[in-house]
């Protein structure tokens, strides 16, 4: 008997059709994944910056 509020209207998940409930679950899943992926992207951008700097330093040392 879970309730969910969508567009300022409250819905009972037990009353939802199977397809509607599946859409809700998919939405909840992707909304949960977005922060995780944003954190991963930030880590990859930091790594890219570090590798770029290291490459520049290595190239400068070869000159």
Structure summary:
By secondary structure, the chain is of the alpha+beta class. The chain has one helix and two strands.
Give start-end ranges of low-pLDDT stretches. none
State the helical fraction.
Answer: over 70%
- Give the SSE order as H and E letters: EEH
Strand order of the biggest β-sheet: 1-2
Total count of domains: 1
Q: How many helical stretches? A: 1
The overall pLDDT average reads: 97
Q: How many strand units?
A: 2
Describe the structure.
Strands 1-2 form a two-stranded antiparallel ribbon. The longest helix is centred in the middle third of the chain and has 45 residues. The chain has 63 residues and is an alpha+beta fold. The protein is rod-shaped and about 70 Å long. The chain has one helix and two strands. 71% of the residues lie in helices and 13% in strands. It has one domain.
List keywords for this structure.
63 residues, two-stranded antiparallel sheet, alpha+beta, 2 strands
Question: What is the topology?
Answer:
Elements: E1 3-6, E2 9-12, H1 18-62
Antiparallel strand pairs: 1-2
């Amino acid at each position: 008997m879970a309730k969910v509020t969508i567009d300022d209207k409250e819905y009972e998940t037990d009353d939802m059709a199977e397809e509607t409930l599946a859409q809700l679950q998919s939405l909840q899943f992707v909304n949960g994944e977005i922060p995780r992926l944003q954190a991963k992207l930030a880590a990859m951008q930091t790594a890219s910056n570090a590798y770029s700097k290291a490459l520049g330093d290595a190239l400068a040392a070869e000159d």
